[in-house]
Recover the amino acids of this structure.
């Protein structure tokens, strides 16, 4: 495993665009889920970050289809 790979696994939060990309969704939909209170996010300065644990909970609580 390279140093870059180790750093990627140690992350504790993702940006809106990263969560959207990781889950094949639009950034607008992710923002809407945050506004609806379904996805927890933190504002750090001007950035909005989604904790890794919040993304996991959000996916686990998504309705089954």
């Amino acid at each position: 495993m390279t140093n870059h790979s180790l750093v990627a696994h140690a992350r504790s939060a993702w940006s809106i665009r990263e969560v959207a990309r990781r889950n094949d969704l639009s950034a607008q939909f992710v923002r809407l889920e945050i506004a609806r209170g379904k996805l927890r996010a933190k504002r750090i300065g001007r950035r909005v970050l989604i904790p890794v644990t919040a993304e996991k909970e959000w996916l686990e609580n998504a309705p089954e289809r």
